[in-house]
Specification:
The chain is α+β, with helices and mostly antiparallel strands. It has two helices and eleven strands. The C terminus is likely disordered.
């Protein structure tokens, strides 16, 4: 599971697991990653997982973002990247750096890390699924309430396809 590590001015680093497709970073308490630094904007940036890569994007136009010392507005994250938001220092890792607590009877904890990755991929794949051919013509299409951008072609929605099959 991907991790963010925040290095505060005082104290030990703080770890955050990147466990959602979109994680916000900022000074406001409502963010997934709360950075209590005055140089960080309330909603500074977000990390987006698109099913393959992790992407860092700015949320506030005047927010300062540097990745490995270079100013960026958007960039693909790779293992070992050093992020600077304002003056706050963060590190990005593709792999869990903390020893995962294994459930009783499990081995080395790698099971929980794999389970976290499966959960992340499963959320991504289920949020953008096409309507299945086994749906009844009276049930709503699954994409109608989801955040997926897929829409059926004009005039070829699920009801018309079912009408041709005789159901």
């Amino acid at each position: 599971m991907a991790m963010l590590r925040y290095f505060p001015q005082e104290g030990s680093p703080v770890f955050f697991a990147v466990h959602k497709p979109v994680m916000t970073i900022g000074r406001a308490l409502g963010n997934d990653v709360h950075i209590p630094d005055r140089s960080v904007k309330e909603h500074h940036a977000q990390i987006v997982f698109n099913g393959r890569d992790f992407q860092l994007e700015e949320l506030d136009r005047i927010a300062d973002i540097a990745i490995n010392g270079k100013k960026k507005r958007r960039a693909r994250l790779v293992d070992g990247d050093r992020l600077t938001l304002g003056t706050a220092q963060l590190g990005f890792s593709m792999y869990s750096e903390l020893p995962a607590a294994a459930p009783p009877g499990e081995g080395d904890g790698s099971h929980s890390e794999l389970a976290g990755l499966r959960k992340l991929f499963q959320r991504r794949s289920t949020s953008c699924s096409r309507p299945s051919s086994t749906m009844s013509s009276r049930s709503p299409a699954p994409h109608a309430a989801s955040s997926c951008w897929w829409m059926p072609p004009r005039g070829k929605g699920p009801r018309r396809a079912f009408a041709r099959l005789g159901t």
